[in-house]
């Protein structure tokens, strides 16, 4: 992995080059807390310029109508955003298309012709005061609604209730699909049925677009590992040692056999469906009917290992690069000769995922570009969320003003504080004693401090101090003793258990993060209760 520059990630110089970027930001607000985005004043325009990108898709926006005024109008870009009809602050996707200068060779090619929310065509958009379904109006919908695998309208509406997809048609005859596919993290039967129906409908729409003569860019968090090589956990379960594989000592037939089992596993039908969509699947009988190519894998090659795009934050597996690759940019396979560059950007922080980009020459696309008439795109965020003439926040009651807290407080008497919600409604008052604890120190003076449980945090035993009720300062090393040595020969770190069986109990563990057991840079698994 290479260090990412503070300014921009430049592409190879070429006038007709278009850059695609996809990024699961895991909350567009918190994303701006990380370098270098923390220096961008919550400006998406600066983010898009940083990536030097033209077609950008974000997943897991976790935003709501109140905040769309900030993300829904980006100077120099078309903006299309879908948020859940249920589960506020959950899911949500966005697609932004750069409006290129008139003298740019791709200016006409990137003009937006139509845009649609969802995968079913059953959602509505407001036109002349009426709500019109996309599939009922050819000037609104992208088409391809026939034979999509599910006919029950209630099931289809449920699939589109979580803000998981945006589709945009460009003048160059290309359809951009931004998706945040469901994962069924709870491993429930209901969740798996929802997931399979979503994938089935979406993949059938993509095939229908191809039959219509459209080119497709399918981008986002697909939540499916297409191949065994894309999952560190599955490689470990298959007993494939990456170091041996990388040096060629693992027999290729063994790896290929395990990879086929991985894709055809009857318990994971979503992997088979994805590989059936790919013309570069490693299983020929699946590839025969494929229509898309995995652009990142095509550019980087089949032999590149550990090309992961998401890591487990609870287990801190990112430092050892023990993750999986589920963030993809899939393009119509006939475009593979136009691919110039593409990679993951694993050093870009801001999320448990990392961005993925693909650079493509639009030479061949320019011949398919048709003249377009300027028209109102009803799904464009500025129209859908009424951002044209005023700030959407003005429709809601102003926040009530509260007096600032004094710099010093007399805590000898009872003190209460109240918080204010967005619409100015006061929440119930709470005693300040519920937020702070008061301890006595030398001289009988009272000291106000915030409790620190240190749960899940690394504690430096040599510098961390605590204060006893008598005011005597001691280091945690004095309390818990000298750290034991792990199997690497390094001093262990102290952590606190969060399990229901041993809540709050402290233990020693290896300071390295979890990863491939065969990797010396991963945790050795040392564990000892204090």
UniProtKB/TrEMBL annotation:
Q: Which residues bind Mg(2+)?
A: 24, 60, 221, 223, 352-353
Q: What GO molecular functions are on record for this protein? A: DNA-(apurinic or apyrimidinic site) endonuclease activity; double-stranded DNA 3'-5' DNA exonuclease activity; phosphoric diester hydrolase activity; zinc ion binding
| Site (described: Interaction with DNA substrate) | 353
Active-site residue list: 180, 221 (proton donor/acceptor), 353 (proton acceptor)
Q: Domain of life, per the record?
A: Eukaryota
Q: Protein name, please?
A: DNA-(apurinic or apyrimidinic site) endonuclease 2
Entry keyword annotation includes Nucleus = yes
Cofactors (names): Mg(2+); Mn(2+)
> Would you identify the family this protein belongs to, as annotated?
Belongs to the DNA repair enzymes AP/ExoA family.
């Amino acid at each position: 992995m290479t260090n990412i520059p503070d300014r921009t990630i430049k592409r190879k110089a070429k006038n007709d080059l278009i850059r695609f970027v996809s990024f699961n930001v895991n909350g567009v607000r918190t994303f701006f807390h990380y370098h270098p985005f923390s220096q961008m004043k919550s400006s998406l325009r600066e983010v898009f310029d940083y990536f030097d990108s033209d077609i950008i898709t974000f997943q897991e926006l976790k935003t709501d109508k109140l905040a769309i005024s900030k993300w829904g109008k980006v100077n120099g870009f078309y903006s299309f955003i879908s948020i859940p009809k249920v589960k506020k602050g959950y899911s949500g996707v966005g697609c932004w298309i750069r409006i290129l200068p008139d003298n740019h060779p791709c200016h006409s090619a990137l003009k937006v012709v139509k845009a649609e929310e969802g995968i079913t065509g059953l959602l509505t958009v407001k036109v002349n005061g009426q709500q019109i379904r996309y599939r009922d109006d050819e000037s609104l919908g992208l088409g391809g609604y026939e034979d999509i695998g599910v006919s029950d309208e209630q099931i289809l509406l449920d699939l589109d209730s979580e803000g998981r997809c945006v589709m945009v048609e460009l003048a160059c005859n290309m359809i951009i699909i931004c998706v945040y596919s469901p994962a069924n993290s709870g491993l429930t039967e209901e969740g798996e049925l929802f997931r399979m129906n979503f994938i089935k409908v979406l993949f059938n729409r993509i095939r229908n677009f191809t039959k219509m003569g459209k080119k497709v860019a399918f981008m986002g968090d697909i939540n499916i590992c297409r191949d065994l090589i894309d999952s560190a956990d599955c490689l470990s379960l298959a007993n494939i040692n990456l170091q041996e594989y990388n040096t060629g000592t693992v027999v290729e037939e063994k790896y290929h056999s395990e990879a086929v089992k991985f894709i055809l596993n009857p318990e994971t039908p979503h992997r088979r469906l994805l590989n059936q969509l790919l013309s570069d699947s490693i299983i020929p009988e699946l590839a025969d009917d494929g229509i898309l190519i995995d652009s990142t894998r095509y550019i980087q090659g089949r032999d590149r290992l550990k090309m992961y795009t998401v890591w487990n934050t609870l287990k801190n597996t990112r430092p050892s690069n023990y993750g999986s690759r589920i963030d993809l940019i899939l393009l119509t396979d006939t475009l593979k000769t136009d691919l110039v560059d593409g990679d993951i950007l694993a050093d870009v922080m801001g999320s448990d995922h990392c961005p993925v980009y693909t650079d493509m020459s639009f030479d061949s696309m320019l011949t398919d570009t048709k003249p377009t008439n300027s028209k109102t795109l009803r799904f464009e965020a500025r129209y859908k969320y009424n951002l044209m003439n005023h700030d959407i926040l003005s429709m809601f009651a102003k926040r009530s003003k509260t007096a600032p807290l004094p710099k010093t407080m007399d805590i000898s008497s009872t003190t209460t504080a109240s918080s204010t919600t967005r619409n100015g409604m006061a929440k119930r008052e709470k005693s300040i004693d519920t937020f702070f604890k008061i301890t006595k120190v030398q001289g009988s003076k009272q000291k106000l401090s915030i409790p620190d449980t240190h749960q899940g945090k690394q504690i430096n035993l040599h510098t961390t101090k605590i204060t006893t009720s008598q005011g005597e300062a001691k280091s945690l090393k004095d309390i818990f003793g000298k750290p034991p040595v792990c199997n690497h020969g390094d001093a262990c770190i102290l952590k606190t258990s969060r399990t229901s069986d041993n809540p709050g109990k402290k233990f020693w563990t290896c300071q390295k993060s979890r990863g491939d057991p065969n990797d010396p840079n991963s945790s050795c698994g040392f564990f000892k209760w204090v």
